Amino acid sequence: MALMLNGAGVSRGIAIGPCLVIRRDELEVLEYAIPRALIDDEVARFEYAIKKAQQQLNQVRQQIPVDTSPEISAFIDTHLLMIEDDALCRVPINLIRRQQYNAEWALKLQRDALVTVFDVMDDPYLKTRRDDVDHVVKRIQRILLSHQEQADDAIFQRARGCVVVADELSPADMLLMYQRGVAGFISEDGAPNSHTAILARSLGVPAVVGVPDACRYVLQNEQLIVDSRFGTAIASPDDSALTFYRHCIKHDQSRIVALKMLKGLPAVSRDGCAIHLMMNIELADEIELNKKMDADGVGLFRTEMLFMNRTELPDEEEQYQIYAKLMRAFKGCPVTIRTLDVGADKHINVNSLNDYSGSNPALGLRAIRLSFKEPQLFLPQLRAILRASALGELRMMVPMLSGMREVQQLYRLIRMCKAVLKEKGQRFDVAMKVGAMIEVPAAAIAASAFARAFDFLSIGTNDLIQYTLATDRMDAAVGHLYDPLHPAVLHLIQMTIAAGEQHGTPVSMCGEMAGDPEYTALLLGMGLREFSMAASMLLEVKDIINDSDVSLLSRQVSALLDLDNPDEVIAAVGALGKA
Q1: Does residue 195 have an active-site annotation?
Q2: Are residues 158 and 47 both part of a single domain?
Q3: Catalytic residue among 79, 135, 195, 347
């Protein structure tokens, strides 16, 4: 009898194959005191585990074929950099020496401190960075506890043609499976934005993550279908299901070939409307990963991770080096750097800053409000961004502006920083473009004033939807109210685009709606001409654009915006593009 399992699909493929169940034993970490006379030996034991973990990851990296896209090895490089970071290789040693903790316990305490920062985040991508911490820490812990690595050739030699079902999988596991010819995978843990999931998308491996107790419900060698488009898996499928999904696989293979043909081609609709497709970059270590992707530039580079998981603020020079690396990687393309957006769900533990959590952090001192309150936070960033503007077409974007008083204060600080740099003889682009994120309903309603004050606007749909509907999309109790197609949300987006058209100010979108093919036709019809999204979605969105008639969509969307019945809106969006 067939069994349906549900989770989150992280790619768009389908896999069929026998099941290979891999379940790691839970690591038991105990606390005990190390005698003072043996502290140096305990530190040496910890340092050996660090070096051994580095060797293991380097071995995985060396097995990656030389002709493989550089973004693949970047995932392993990320974990290698984490192992070398003081947060993991030095702080536990300090705990061993000061508190006489055993190495395993010291590492566990530091791991707990790090993941706590990520656990309180609302941003889905940043939240899942805790998975990387866990993968690296567990690798080190297994060495300390003398656990044999189970994700090695001995297991994965059997993975060819199989659907691997595991409790968890790291990027290194994913690479080893791919090299052994795995058909697909299912994991009990994980999220669509984890590095393992992103790597699965990059490699084109069908995968479903977040399937509770998957290892309990399937049997070794049982036939499995993985449909990562819809986040489902079928154990012991019948003949009709197998026939249907084999047909789907052939269709998908043809589509992949067709999408690859779009690489390097412009995004232009059938009636000649040119669209700019930009990419979002979340972390500094993704710069190399994404620089060869098929995009017109960077529509959003988030800077908050430069400030997180550290006790001291990054100075102007450190920030400049990161921004300069970004500009050099995307030389000749526009690059948009967003100023610091922390507070609410994104916290920084810097000694020199006060705690501004407040009674309602989402409505409190966050993003540009915190930057204004803490000039030692904001001014070095402004100067670093201005200096990097001398290296190419850099655009600075400011989050969570809500009124013109903030705009006036922003420009005063920019003028101040320009004066300081000029006095020091440091180069910068005097005409660097400055833009505003439209993510507060007040800013959307006042979009006309913002369009006059800024060089460009960018709609951040994630926060705009949440603030408009007073809904936390990560809260299971009210998440169903999060609705990108709510008439109020659509009207705020339309008002912003119309204000940009009225004043000749470009308007882009960098929220999740921009990279969701479900909404591409709708946004084109609303007048959006610049989309910024995860690199993995660029070709799919381009394909829809190139097959669209924008003039037809504009007429259809005009009628759609008059609807207020949710079912009618959904039906109208589904019918867009059909004459």
Answers
A1: yes
A2: no
A3: 195
